[in-house]
């Protein structure tokens, strides 16, 4: 598998310059990760010519890969440290997973759609990532056996911040997620202080819904 060529390298550099740096994403570790990761490998072959465009793309199963700026902005809001253990709710394409894996010590990622999880795992393993742990299941229940986590990122919109996420987040840790309803979502960052979250709002966004498994 050819990971990169001159064209994709140039497209990635242009993506970071025009879509990320121009929108005031300042975390150099985040921008370096986006420069490194071959985003085109995380989308279906039909859409690869659009992989570096300023837009979300369909990845199958009713799911999408977020536009590059949103991935960068959410990553920056997490304030990821090299020693962090991160919980990702919604593996999806695996692209956000790769960004987190570049920046943190370990990533625990859970996806309810097994086919997407398997595809993401195959791509990420082919790229040499060995610090990612994959799970298939209901992300609203977290992964308690590996808690607590330094950071939590949710890549689909939730109508509430589940208490289990708060419980699995370390004191002083950060959670970033889109919160709201269909077409009315706000990107929020919560910092855990004295066992509860202090919430900041960071603008309007549009994500697919997080689906809770029914009994």
Brief sketch in words of this structure:
With 215 residues, the chain is an alpha/beta fold. It is built from six helices and nine strands; from the N terminus they run H-H-E-E-H-E-H-E-H-E-E-H-E-E-E. 29% of the residues lie in helices and 29% in strands.
Write the layout of secondary structure elements.
Layout: H1 6-20, H2 28-36, E1 57-60, E2 63-65, H3 68-78, E3 85-89, H4 95-103, E4 106-111, H5 114-126, E5 132-136, E6 149-154, H6 163-168, E7 169-181, E8 184-193, E9 196-205
Parallel strand pairs: 3-4, 3-6, 4-5, 6-7
Antiparallel strand pairs: 1-2, 7-8, 8-9
Helix pairs in contact: 1-2, 1-3, 2-4
Describe the structure.
The chain has 215 residues and is of the alpha/beta class. It has a single domain, classed as 3-Layer(aba) Sandwich (Rossmann fold), CATH 3.40.50. The protein has 6 helices and 9 strands. It has a 7-stranded mixed sheet. Helix 1 packs antiparallel against helix 2, helix 1 crosses helix 3 and helix 2 packs across helix 4. It is globular and about 50 Å long. The protein starts with 5 loop residues before the first helix and ends in a 10-residue tail after the last strand.
Helix fraction, binned, reads 25-40%
Widest sheet: strand ordering: 5-4-3-6-7-8-9
Instruction: Decide which structural class fits the backbone.
Output: alpha/beta
Measure the end-to-end span.
41 Å
Q: Helical element count?
A: 6
Low-confidence stretches: none
From the alpha-carbon coordinates, what is the Rg to the nearest angstrom?
A: 16 Å
Query: How many distinct folded domains?
Result: 1
Label the overall shape: globular
CATH architecture: 3-Layer(aba) Sandwich
Strand content of the residues, in percent?
25-35%
Q: Please, what is the CATH homologous superfamily? A: Vaccinia Virus protein VP39
Biggest sheet descriptor: 7 strands, mixed
User: What's the number of extended β-strand segments?
Assistant: 9
What is the H/E order?
HHEEHEHEHEEHEEE
Tell me the CATH topology. Answer: Rossmann fold
């Amino acid at each position: 598998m050819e990971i990169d060529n001159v064209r994709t390298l140039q497209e990635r550099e242009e993506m970071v310059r025009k879509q990320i740096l121009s929108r005031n994403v300042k975390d150099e570790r985040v921008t370096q990760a986006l420069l490194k990761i071959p985003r085109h490998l995380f989308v279906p072959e039909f859409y690869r010519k659009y992989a570096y465009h300023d837009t979300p793309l369909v990845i199958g199963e009713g799911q999408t890969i977020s536009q590059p700026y949103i991935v960068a902005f959410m990553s920056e809001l997490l304030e990821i440290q090299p020693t962090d253990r991160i919980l990702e709710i919604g593996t999806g394409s695996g692209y956000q997973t790769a960004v987190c894996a570049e920046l943190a010590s370990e990533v625990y990622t859970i996806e309810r759609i097994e086919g997407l999880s398997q595809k993401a795992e195959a791509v990420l393993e082919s790229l040499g990532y060995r610090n990612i742990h994959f799970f298939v299941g209901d992300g609203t229940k977290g992964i308690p056996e590996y808690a607590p986590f330094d950071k939590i990122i949710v890549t689909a919109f939730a109508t509430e911040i589940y208490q289990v996420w708060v419980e699995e987040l370390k004191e002083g840790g950060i959670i970033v997620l889109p919160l709201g309803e269909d077409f009315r979502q706000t990107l929020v960052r919560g910092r855990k202080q004295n066992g509860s979250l202090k919430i900041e709002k960071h603008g309007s966004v549009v994500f697919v819904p997080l689906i809770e498994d029914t009994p």
